[in-house]
Amino acid sequence: MLSNRIRLIFNMTTLMLLSFALMSCTPENPQSTFDAQGPISEIQKNLFLFTFWIAVIVFIVVEGAIIFVTFKYRRKNDDLPPQIHGNLRLEITWTIIPAIIIVIIAIPTVFGIWETQVMPDEEDAIIINAVGHQWWFEFKYPSEEIVTANELHLPEDKNVIVNIQSQDVLHSFWIPKIAGKVDMVPNHENKLWFRADNPGLYYGQCAEFCGIVHAMMRFRVVVHTEENYQNWLEGMRTPPKSVNSGSDEDEGRKLFVGNCSMCHTNDSYKKAAYHKEINSQYNRWEEWKKDKENSAIVSAPNLTHFGNRLTIASGIKENNYENLVKWIENPDSIKIGTRMKNHANIYNSDKKLTDQEIQQIAKYLLSLKPENDSMASYNQELKR
Amino acid sequence: MSNQDVTIQHGEEIKNSTGVSNKKLLMWAFLGSDVMFFGTFIGTFMAYRNKSLNGPYPSDTLDIPITSISTFVLLMSSLGVVLALHYLKESKMVLAKLWLILVIIMGMIFMGFQVYEFSHFAHIGMTPQANLFGSTFFTLTSLHGAHVSLGIIWLIFLLYNEYKGNLTSENAIDLELAGLYWHFVDIVWIIIFALLYLITAGDGVPPGGLPWIAGQ
Amino acid sequence: MSSIIGPKQFQIPRIFPRPMSHSGIWYWLGTVDHKKIGTMYGIVSFFWFIMGGIEALLIRVQLSQAENDIISPELYNQLFTMHGTTMVFLVVMPLSAAFFNWLIPLQIGARDVAFPRLNALSLWVFIFGSILMNISWLTGEAPNGGWFGYPPNSTIQFNPGNGMTFWVLGLNVLGVASIAAGLNFIVTIINMRAPGMTLMRMPVFTWMTFITSILIVLALPILGVAGIQMTGDRVYGTNFFNSEAGGDPIFWQHIFWLFGHPEVYILILPAMGIVSEILPTFARKPLFGYTFIVFSGIIIGFMGWFVWSHHMFTVGLGPAANTAFTLSTMLIAIPTGVKIFNWLATLWGGSIKFTTAMLFSIGFIAMFTIGGLSGVTHAVSPSDAQQQDTYYVVAHFHYVLFGGSIFAIFGGLYFWWPKFTGYMLNERLGILNFIIMLIGFNLQFAPMHWLGLDGMPRRIYTYAENMGWELSNLAATIGGFLIAFSVLIFMVNVFISRINKKLASGDPWDARTLEWSISSPPPHYNFVEIPKVEHIDDWWYKKYPELLEGSPKQTKSPKVTVEDTSNVDESKIHLPDLSYYPLFVGVGLSIAALGVIYSYALVTIGLILVFWGCIGWSTEPVNEPHEKHH
């Protein structure tokens, strides 16, 4: 009978939905919010699951009632069913019960809001200034006086307070396994706090539509043991390994100075470099604003010790020689619409680079690692 | 209504569920939506108060004595509309026309003051593009001015019909509707005057703003 | 030549004579009959439904595989912007308007709306506004800043070109159409009910239309202001959202969502009204708890103003504001839940016939419940910080807007099709339409809940290979094509049914409200005699007065039948004459808006047309003076 088939379809659909729900937990995926690795994402996950299971009960009640009704009350004959207009007691009951459920959900929620959104003491925390740009993330460590981009290094088990801003349009700072997102708004400073429980590599992504290549604005977070974190800090203050004069790396260094360094700083390991870089980025941005079409300058990611970075193009491709050559040769082949492609002289004038020059720059950049690179083996591990 | 009489007269006084004619109900509902419209612009002005990064600032430009005069004129024009309607309903056509003419003139005087004020502001460098104050001030007052202008055109049209004998005590509701609209526009102006002029005219350079010197 | 000028009425001279004939193109362009206007709203918005659907399919094709490059990011951003804008403003709202137009006068026992020419204006402003917005495709620069247009990304500084300017101007023009319609229906419902139809005897669809109209009239002006401000910024250099001058991007979000949240109730309340008519009809028992359903609609309309910042939980408003909006958002779940239970109770104990309309209505309850529940999880603002801007949100709003509004609209189409056209839609094709749409819809949107919780953000034209998102995206794409197939089935159904023309009686479903007491389609004057209303579901109780006393097992044969129009003396019928002035104003408004982008000459021409149209309209009598006409 037709209505039997219809009921079957209803039931199958419901089952399909339930199975989706059950299949849902794949915490091994890099941006899964079910793999909470810190107290903030843990609170958020638990609040979600609490609400979710209550919702599942409501779902079963309502969808169950629908399925039951389609069986029991299908039209069997011409008899008129009892013409009931309502039942005040029943209606009041099913107004009050949802209200009670709402209160039950609201109480831990309000506690959760205050716990996750009130900043902890600044004295015991690491302070990070994160600035969103089209289409990369800038990270500054004001106390440690370090500037880097697209890769955030943190120690485990320590509170982190991020001061979140944007230089241009709206972006959002999101590391799903560690904490829910906070938007990056120009002229506003938002704050986010979190803690990472375990060392490891975490994925972050911009989560507020920010223009043509919003899809490719991502970053990595490397959480270290305290010891490794100190090593990393130390490394960021150490000059890079020296390069042999006349080598490809040395040629690359000269090319970099001539073609890239007006936008990209790569010597922020020096003393007093921190404030210098802040000024430089500001100046570059003001320059760009004067002529957004044709300016040859724009603020760009800091490339200090780029050799140790895990990814290029803000989390898009693995940082290795082939990818780097492709990126320098034609950024559009990896990430369409970047400011680099639109503004750097090497793409927009006759100052184009030869293949050999590109390779030399790539080799130079990959050589930028601290002199006593104590992070080398750790980085190898992470890349795997 | 019966089989034979299927006429609908729309907008005119007809027997209906509330006793308020369709036209009048429409005007009230429209004014309700216009409240949201002006309310949002006024809200924008207040939200951006003291947030301009450069001048000119309210204290540099707004002139309360002059604007008080135009406000008074607009207020009096509302009284004029009441009188024009009253005399129309009593079929005292000479007085009705006189008062309607006066309302139109007063409305035009108000607009004249606005035009004078705006051109003076532009002359000293306060434009919609200059800063937040300029943007919020000009959009709000210009849209209000547009409402007044449309009202003046409407009233002129009604005056013309009075002269032609088409507007009489029988269809006085048509003037009443224009009167409602006119009163609304007047009330909005009172709010604008109170907030934009009286309350904020003293605002000078806000924290973080650049100082402004006349003539630059 | 110019038309007759009566003794007292001044008319401006006409260049074209007033259309009088009830056939031909000028009839359709000049009609002020709510039924014809409703039909035109329906056809045009269905066309945009297809366009918006194609935009969605292209999105889904691009996302079906990781790191796909079929669609460039530029085109993708335009596609998702236009898909959202189209579905909200050019599909759900005008399809609802199609139903308002057709049904309100019929349900309240009136011969037309309060202002028929204003009604025509709404239609023409909508049609030309929708064309205006979509002309941008032809320039290669469709809007690309999202349907929500957040600055600074949508400002002229970061988004040069005309795309987003088309968007704001289009929205402002469309807003005029909506507000005009809202005003018209408010006056119609308040003032033109048949004698005896108190507010609490109105059909629920009429009630929901009433509340929706009030929301429209109060919320659309807010969007209009945001639009004027953004137009000022983009075209005239004002600073409302210019962060370099101190403008605040968050301010846009506040204004937009103060409009935007009431807007979602504008999108769902009519659907709830439709479902509230269909369920009792095919369950053969009254709507359970009419009073509670009406009052929960009113409460939702009221409370909907206090929740807007739940769209802004991650913007940095602070814990106090987030708490306030969390609580208000949770509260609004209560009246919504009440409706679900009342609808279930309507089915409970009934004698249910699974017509297509009934299937879509039951599907509505099922799907809307899921969307509502995911909405409750959004209200929990800490965990919303994980869900915001991910596919979880996309899942939520598609469950309520597609599984909710669109399902209900399809139900309404199957239910009232005989009334609108005079023939029945094929039920077997209808059931197939429903089943495939149900399966396709769930296949497309259910996986998105998981994708969002797995960290997939929205509005991204591609994603990396190692994220684990491919299978769900592929499933969603297949689901999308199934939906498209089901829509095709609907169109085939319309086509075949038109050919087969299985004629419908005035009351083919043995239904309950006044529109079923007249022929299908109704005569142009709607009712031979304006009914005197004594009850809710008055038609039902006129047919079966025995049900007023008790609950017998069988109804006797109906005491009254559908109105007989054979004896009506049509020469005595005077309905408002046609008018082309609303068309002029509608065309003029969009030309003026286009001129803001291209040239002041166009603005002038457009405004002249608007003024001419308005003055012509206000001096034109409702009926030309004559002895007898048409």
The Cα radius of gyration of chain A reads 27 Å
Helix content of chain B: 55-70%
Global morphology of chain A: elongated
Mean pLDDT of chain A: 92
At CATH level 3, the topology of chain B is: Four Helix Bundle (Hemerythrin (Met), subunit A)
- Tell me the domain tally of chain B: 1
> How does CATH name the architecture of chain B?
Up-down Bundle
- Determine the N-to-C terminus distance of chain B: 72 Å
Q: Please tally the β strands of chain B and state the result.
A: 0
* Helix content class of chain A: 40-55%
Which terms summarize this structure?
heterotrimer; A: 384 residues; alpha+beta; five-stranded mixed β-sheet; three-stranded mixed β-sheet; 11 helices; 16% strand; elongated; C: 630 residues; mainly alpha; Cytochrome C Oxidase, Chain A; 63% helix; disordered N terminus
Characterization of the model:
The complex is a heterotrimer of chains A (384), B (216) and C (630). Chain A is α+β, with helices and mostly antiparallel strands. Chain A contains 11 helices and 12 strands. Chain A has helices at residues 2-23, 39-72, 88-117, 226-236, 248-259, 273-290, 321-329, 339-343, 345-348, 355-367, 376-383; strands at 126-133, 136-141, 146-149, 151-155, 160-166, 171-175, 179-184, 190-194, 200-205, 218-224, 311-312, 317-318. In chain A, the strands form 4 sheets. In chain A, strands 3-2-1-5-8 form a 5-stranded mixed β-sheet. The longest helix of chain A has 34 residues, at 39-72. Chain A is elongated. Chain B has a single domain (26-198), classed as Cytochrome c oxidase, subunit III, four-helix bundle (Four Helix Bundle (Hemerythrin (Met), subunit A)), CATH 1.20.120. In chain B, α3 (64-89) packs antiparallel against α6 (173-199) and α5 packs antiparallel against α6 (173-199). Chain C has 630 residues and is an all-alpha fold. Helix content of chain C is 63%, strand content 0%. Chain C has 17 helices and no strands. In chain C, α6 runs parallel beside α8 and α12 (391-421) packs antiparallel against α13. The radius of gyration of chain C is 25 Å and the shape is globular. The two termini of chain C are 18 Å apart. In chain C, 64% of the residues are buried. Residues 1-7 of chain C have low confidence and may be disordered. Chains A and C meet through α1, α2, α3 and β7 of A and α3, α7, α8, α9 and α10 of C.
